[in-house]
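Posting this for the archive.
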Amino acid sequence: PEQLQEPESVPSPPMSDTEVVFQITADDLVHAYRLHLWRRYNWKYLLKSFAIGAIVYIVLLVGGVRIASGHFPEWRYVWMAAGIAAVVAIGVPILNHLILPRAGRKIYDQQRTLHQVHTVIFQGDRFIVETPTSRDEIHYADLIHWSEDRQMILLYQSSVMFRVVPKRVLNDGQVAFLYRVLLQNGVHKV
């Protein structure tokens, strides 16, 4: 008689992939840089910049006046130095914000690979970015964090290098899939 064999355990299917095809525009790049800029220049960064700037200005002012005249400066000059530090700490990000569109468009014009069609395949443990001239596989575990706003998702490989995914190319299911795999792979949002 025939012996019945136990069915082999069937592995669960891998998480389904999702694929998007898009071309980055100059406006996408400018928006991505702005999002990065405002994520980088958060209140902690501004406070730290102000503190460092204020200390440097005050030390230079007090030390310079002490050496030059032999006495300490009046308090109004110390407050003036702190005010200069505040203007610099807040002014640098604002200046960057104002010059960013021109710089972003220049980078877009110069970097011809940005004009290529990008295919991004999101999988359970990695995503693949393909263009006609390159192919990169990036594991989610290699990302340090991610960020988003209403128009853009940035996937950070370092504090200054990120992958751009415009939300205009994703449907709701793809966005949900991406959120899920980022969470499952321990990538936190900033």
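The radius of gyration is 25 Å. Residues 9-15 have pLDDT under 50 and may be disordered.
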